[in-house]
UniProtKB/TrEMBL annotation:
Its main location: membrane. It is found in: Membrane. It is a multi-pass membrane protein. It comes from the Eukaryota. It holds the Pfam family Claudin_2. The keyword Coiled coil does not apply. One of its GO terms (cellular component) is membrane. The chain crosses the membrane at residues 7-26, 140-163, 170-193, 213-236. This is Claudin domain containing 1. It comes from Phoxinus phoxinus. Keywords: Membrane, Transmembrane, Transmembrane helix.
Amino acid sequence: MVDNRHATALVLAGVLSVLASVYLSVSVGSPHWYQYTSPPVRAEPNASELRALQDEFLDGEFDEKSASDAMFRMNGTLGLWWRCVLTPTDAHWYREPDPKMVMACVSFTLSQQFMPKYKEPGNHNSGEDLIRTYLWRCQFFLPLVSLSLVVLGGLLGFCACLCGSLTPALFIGLIHLLAGVFSLATVCCFLAGTDLLHRVSMLPDRVDGSLGWSLYLALVASPLHMMAGALLMWAARSHSQSYDRMTVYRVA
């Protein structure tokens, strides 16, 4: 028998878990984890150079240096699975008034997610940068692990409801705590990897970088998962203690 306090805690934990999962899913599928603000294009030579960067970015083989240069200079955005740049709808980059710009995105393939990072981006002879390589791979894996844990917790919770038992809530709470830790670790890996990239690939003049809304969504998902886990664990522990006291009372 579950009293009102425990039932309220379970409902709140479920709502928090769903919200956190939606936030994390949206952030993972969005390219707006980090964004660059570039100066406008006003001269034909500069426009021609940017056209070449755009063509290589959208149609060429992935190269970290060329992709980074394109994002730096074309108001690009970077996500866990996507990279984007702003491109004009026509060929006149420098025409007055300013041309209408649209966002063009390219997804990272599975093989590109596992490609090594080099100490000098674009220079394969400079040696592999193991820290950046594994930070990139971790930021790809960790959110998938976090979402998988939440799905596992949801299946266990469904089975517990069918059985009418609150005992699995303690284990489900631990799963949600781990999911929150992995969500937070994803953000930390992305920020560390981006900072290391900017150290080896300096931003051009008048180009600024800032955190995007997708990163903040993932950051919010982490405490929501943890709060859901804490509520589940409290409900399981409190219910267990109440059950033990009721058993002692009946024996007495």
